[in-house]
Amino acid sequence: MGGNDRGVRTIDDVLEMLDGLFAGGGDRWTEGGAAWWDGFYEDRGKPVPFFVEKPDENLVAYGERELPPVRGRALDLGCGPGRNALHLASLGYRVDAVDLSATAIGWARERARAAGADGIRFVCGDAFTAALDGPYDLVYDSGCFHHLPPHRRAGYLALLDRVLAPGGHFALTSFAAGEGGMGSELPDAEFYRRGSLEGGLAYTDVQLRSIFAGLTEVELRRMRDEPADSPAFGESFLWTALFRRPA
After folding, report:
1. CA dist., res. 14 & res. 97, Å (int)
2. CB count in 10 Å sphere of residue 207
3. What is the pLDDT of residue 28?
């Protein structure tokens, strides 16, 4: 949609117009869209914490505690290079892993082949419109939600409502507001004034509980810092949260 064609007629038109206010505008909800993320993942040697081939420490802990108890189907939203998808597959889940970046998906597929991992279907595309064949017993999001602009939260909640099985679990890691946190604590409206997501949105625990109020909280805590030699990834600037959908 371009020029002065007065083409805003539907809710999707409004959402796409708002997407376009951010840097690189118009390629869905992320700053710069798929092309920006392809460039981000191109240099695998960058000192990016989550480039490591390790699962999140909270995800490991959930498995050890058998939370969730059913290891059926899992969806990894914004899977990046596939580190958490690989772990979920090792636990016995049949995994769909989706990411906007073809470069990230290519890297994830390489890791899966090297590990001999079966049971993972990698999907390159927009999670809001991708052919996701739910319902899923577990939806896992490590770092996707905090890159959504505010106007996409409603669609995110609608996606969860569509794909999360009754009694299923939703697990999230996201930027934590407050001392030692990362991400921006600006009010929602300010992101639109600046035309930037400022590297990602930081949330308080109260805000996360409010956003996901339709789900039952199982656990919400700061991620534990993990040393370099740990088999798991952990950074305390992130929240980890586990919610359950009522049966």
Report:
1. 28
2. 14
3. 45
